[in-house]
Specification:
The protein contains 6 helices and no strands. The chain is mainly α and 190 residues long. The protein has one domain: Up-down Bundle (de novo design (two linked rop proteins)). The longest helix has 60 residues. It is rod-shaped, with a radius of gyration of 25 Å. The termini are far apart.
């Protein structure tokens, strides 16, 4: 009789440990998929940005013909960012940071042309780009929040044991790698 009780307790403990293991494993899988989804949402917004940039550049070009270097830099940064779409998070962050800096310079050039600032097409494109940049910022924040939850789960006890046994690795945060982007922008109305 005592043997049956011990056997049932052992089986019960094994079943309980199995449930805990699979529950933690499934939680890790779910968080890893949320990280991938959050990154995909950044991709959606970046695609939108890539599609808007040529239209914005062409609109500004019509007014600022002598600002060729600025246009070339924006186009080059856009192409490099698109080409690096399959890069790791750190490289991708740097490429996107470079593109953001180039776009800022383009918008500064646009400020020098009052007729351009009043152009309806330019204003609509500028509003779309601003909206897209806000969406990218939100998507990056959501991605980092998701990475934080995932990394916490993979590094905290007891799920760290399951993460280590099943190959779950910490993800990289999306960080600003271009030092100029960390500085406050200078606004001048001269």
């Amino acid at each position: 009789m005592a043997g049956w009780i011990i056997a049932l307790v052992v089986v019960g403990v094994i079943v309980l440990l199995g449930i805990i293991f699979f529950s933690m494993y499934n939680g890790l899988v779910g968080l890893r998929n949320q990280v991938k989804n959050a990154w995909a949402q950044i991709d959606v917004q970046l695609k939108r940005r890539y599609d808007l940039i040529p239209n914005l550049v062409e609109t500004v070009k019509g007014y600022a013909k002598h600002e060729r270097e600025v246009f070339e830099n924006v186009t080059k940064a856009r192409n490099l960012a698109q080409a690096g779409a399959s890069s790791d998070t750190a490289t991708r962050g740097q490429l996107e940071g470079n593109l953001g800096s180039a776009l800022s310079r383009l918008l500064v050039v646009a400020e020098a042309y009052p007729d351009l600032k009043a152009n309806k097409n330019f204003l609509a494109l500028q509003e779309e780009l601003t909206s897209t940049e806000n969406r990218i910022s939100f998507s990056r924040q959501f991605y980092n929040d998701t990475v934080l939850r995932y990394n916490n789960k993979t590094q905290m006890f007891p799920s760290v044991l399951i993460a280590g046994m099943t190959g779950f690795k910490a993800e990289t945060f999306f960080e600003i790698t271009v030092p100029e982007e960390k500085l406050a922008p200078k606004v001048s109305f001269n």
